[in-house]
Write a structure and sequence with these properties.
Shape: globular
Largest sheet: 6 strands, parallel
Strand content: 15-25%
Mean pLDDT: 90
CATH topology: Rossmann fold
CATH class: Alpha Beta
Low-confidence stretches: 146-151
Number of strands: 6
Distance between the termini: 21 Å
CATH architecture: 3-Layer(aba) Sandwich
Number of helices: 6
Helix content: 40-55%
Oligomer: single chain
Strand order of the largest sheet: 2-1-3-4-5-6
Structural class: alpha/beta
């Protein structure tokens, strides 16, 4: 499957080693991670050659092509928040992973749209299990409307 991995770039790279392990795990499971480049330590430099419009257009196409979105949201990021909302608008399943004891944004915690899963983790095994439980959502036709209300699935 095509997985769009979202994580902070401009907002901070404190969780970079975790991002790298998450992308590696998705790839080890046999999935294509369209945004694999964001786990490169020099991604900011790589992307500095592109205009903001080019990055936006590229990322929107990748979101449209994705079967699902896995977002590590421990570090606040306007871009990641936008990607999550855009994916839900497109009726794509989204898994938000965050490291406890990080205080997650209430805009994410309070989002009750179907298709959104949340998982707090302390150990790698916990986010790995959450990804395994989430992936079947990405391989089926969406069973929800983008504006329908409900409760987020908490893994």
């Amino acid at each position: 499957m095509q997985i769009y991995f979202a994580a902070s770039i401009a907002g901070g790279r404190d969780f970079l080693p975790t991002y790298q392990r998450m992308v590696g795990y998705l790839k080890d499971l046999g999935h294509v991670v369209s945004t694999e480049h964001i786990v490169a330590p020099n991604v900011w430099h790589q992307e500095s050659r592109m205009t903001p419009e080019q990055i936006y257009e590229r990322d929107v196409i990748w979101l449209q092509q994705a079967d699902g979105v896995v977002a590590e949201v421990s570090n606040p990021s306007l871009g990641v928040g936008y990607e999550i909302c855009y994916a839900l608008f497109l009726v794509k399943p989204v898994l938000c992973l965050y490291h406890e004891p990080v205080l997650l944004s209430r805009m994410i915690l309070g989002n009750h749209r179907p298709g959104l899963r949340l998982c707090a983790y302390r150990q790698d095994e916990e986010w790995q299990k959450a990804i395994e439980l989430f992936l079947p959502d990405c391989s089926q036709e969406p069973g929800f409307e983008p504006l329908e209300a409900g409760r987020p699935a908490i893994v």
